[in-house]
Amino acid sequence: MFFFSVPIVHIEAVAGDPVYLPCDISTDEPGDQVLLVLWYREDLGTPIYSVDGRERDFSLAERWSDENVFANRAYFMPEKKPAELGIDHIRETDQSVYRCRVDFKIAQTRNSKVNLTVIGKVTMY
Fold it and tell me: What is the pTM (predicted TM-score) of this model?
């Protein structure tokens, strides 16, 4: 059995602020392209966000966000280097380890993790 180490990035965000979770979707294979990007939260078994370009050009990919996790707070930015999942108005309950899975037409599937720590807002009196 083979175990591949998955790179992990640590990110801190302040509750209420936007946060950007990186996900490398680049490929060096000639003629290759991204087919599907899936985001998972460590404590949930099913995807929480997806960008599906299997039936169309990736720039027109269908995006879906789990209503119980990010709902309409999340958006994917494939033009960034690396690509990013943006999440608006981050909440303390969003703190978790997230995994980004990228399926390519040719290259091997790539996984990366983001350990998101959310810091509560401090109010001064």
Answer: 0.90
